[in-house]
Amino acid sequence: MSAALLIDIILWGSVAAVGFIAYRRGPKVLTASLREGSMDFVNIVPRIALGVIGSGYIAAVIPQEIITGWLGPNSGWFGVATAVIAGAATPGGPVVGFSIGAVALKAGGGPPQVIAYVIAWALFAFQRLLLWEIPFMPARFVWFRATVSVPFPFVAAAIAMAIGKP
Amino acid sequence: MITIGVLVAASATLVYRRDGVDGVLDILTRDLTLFGGILPRVLAGCLLGAFIAEILPHEKVSRSLGPNSGLKGLLIGAAFGAILPGGPFTAYPVASALLAVGADFGATIAMVVSWTLIGYGRAVAWELPIMGTDFTLWRIVISLPLPLLAGALGRFVYVRMYPKDDVE
Asked: What integer pLDDT is reported at residue A92 of this predicted model?
């Protein structure tokens, strides 16, 4: 809880800092950006409402055991590939993705596979792309970034295998 | 939006058939609480994005983060993503603002990837408590080169996919 509070303080501190810089440029710059930011907020809230309130239902109907089963021990590159697909398919917020990763690790899943899973999920979880990234950013950029990111969970798994950690 | 709405409605129906009204309400209360907690941060993110778009000098951004910014541009993008506070509600508006003021896809990819993989926000709040310190730290160490590689790959592919956009 205190970590969340710290993040909030840093976040609003940054807003205040850039707001102050804008104010120094002239009150007009400040009010223009305030109006711009508030309009973005108003436009985005309905989409986020659907995303946040909806993701709980989507996560509830996908049984976690199915996903953890795919990350089995000694599954090698096949396991890494399935981990990447599982990561992309995992719905829900940070709690869901990390919890599945933790369960997989405890159930004897290989660390490289779990690394690949967590990184794939962080980079291009499909639901997050649709619910979070597309509303805020140009769709062309989002798909481009997701596509370019595809090799990197494999790279991370390879590094994890090479150094034998974690 | 419509696809997601349908998907959510279908999932909610499945939850209702499996767990009844209690199951549906349970998830609804939990997610509404989460939504209420997130809202102020969404506002902060939107304001941050708007301020940054307003105060960053465009020529300077396109010089230091644009298509010809080289490795330095990718490094700046990655460093920026790593220190950026907040969640997706901060990172995406800011990334969008950077694109608007002249950063190229490569540097913006480096920033977004760095924020997801190295950014401390999610790691401290969620990954450390759930996955444990050992896993989290090694996962971050392994991730360190990835934003630069992703940004470089992005730039490499982009120039070949959209050759006309490269003319500055």
From this structure: 66
* Nearest chain A CA: its distance from B165 CA (Å): 14
Residue B168 has pLDDT above 70, yes or no: no
Asked if the structure places residue B34 within a domain, the reply is: no
For chain A positions 139-158, those within 8 Å of chain B (CB to CB) are: 141, 144-145, 148-149, 151-152, 155-156
A58 CB within 8 Å of a chain B CB: yes
| Residue B5 lies inside a defined structural domain of this protein | no
**How does pLDDT run across B3-62, given as a tens digit for each residue?**
667 878 888 888 888 888 888 888 888 888 878 877 888 888 888 888 887 887 778 888
CB B93 within 8 A of CB A136: yes
* Chain B residue numbers touching A38 (CB-CB < 8 A): 43, 46-47
Number of C-beta neighbours around residue A103 at 10 A: 17
Cα–Cα distance measured from residue A20 to residue A111, given in angstroms and rounded to the nearest whole number: 46
What is chain B's alpha carbon radius of gyration, rounded to the nearest angstrom?
19
The more confidently predicted of residues A70 and B77 is B77
Residue B167 confidence (pLDDT) = 45
Residues B85-108: tens digit of each pLDDT: 767 777 888 899 999 888 999 999
Q: Is residue B61 part of a domain?
A: yes
The Cα of A94 is separated from the nearest Cα of chain B by a number of Å equal to 7
As for how many domains chain B has, the answer is 1
CA distances from B54 to A35, A140, A162, B2, B92 (A): 12, 23, 45, 33, 16
Q: Which of B27, B31, B52 sits opposite A18 (nearest CB)?
A: B52
Residue ranges making up the domain that contains B61: 46-166
> Does B115 fall in a domain?
yes
Please indicate whether, in this complex, the C-beta atoms of A33 and B51 are within 8 angstroms of each other: yes
Please report the pLDDT score of residue B147 as a whole number: 96
Distance CA A104, CA A72 (A): 8
A40–chain B nearest CA distance, Å? 6
B131 touches chain A (CB under 8 A): yes
